Amino acid sequence: MTLARIVVLFALAAVAEIGGAWLIWQSVREDRGWLFALLGVVALGGYGFIAALQPDVHFGRVLAAYGGVFVAGSLAWGIVVDGFRPSVWDYVGSGVALLGAAIIILAPHSASAEG
């Protein structure tokens, strides 16, 4: 159950953060209007709350692991929403980032490292 919770929360955080940033990008760079920016700010705020629901109590560890999810999620968002065509190096980099995220969040942590 905890692994499923971690994965779902990371996925929701990615949608909120990447989606929020995309909305602001659309407002500023694509002249889509300030409503897009406002919705983006709300989504980015939601990201902060979603990230805080992770079961690990260490902010730095959660955000470091989320960094890998953000890399892969950003490329996926670009593919699905913007028609971006990643190179093989984009895929390799994304895989490395996700591996790093998995190591950070799933590795056993000793009691001395917790405090």
Automatic annotation (TrEMBL):
<keyword id="KW-0812">Transmembrane</keyword>
<feature type="transmembrane region" description="Helical">
    <location>
        <begin position="6"/>
        <end position="25"/>
    </location>
</feature>
<dbReference type="Pfam" id="PF02694">
    <property type="entry name" value="UPF0060"/>
</dbReference>
<dbReference type="InterPro" id="IPR037185">
    <property type="entry name" value="EmrE-like"/>
</dbReference>
<keyword id="KW-1133">Transmembrane helix</keyword>
<protein>
    <submittedName>
        <fullName>YnfA family protein</fullName>
    </submittedName>
</protein>
<feature type="transmembrane region" description="Helical">
    <location>
        <begin position="88"/>
        <end position="107"/>
    </location>
</feature>
<keyword id="KW-1003">Cell membrane</keyword>
<comment type="similarity">
    <text>Belongs to the UPF0060 family.</text>
</comment>
<keyword id="KW-0472">Membrane</keyword>
<feature type="transmembrane region" description="Helical">
    <location>
        <begin position="59"/>
        <end position="81"/>
    </location>
</feature>
<dbReference type="InterPro" id="IPR003844">
    <property type="entry name" value="UPF0060"/>
</dbReference>
<feature type="transmembrane region" description="Helical">
    <location>
        <begin position="34"/>
        <end position="53"/>
    </location>
</feature>
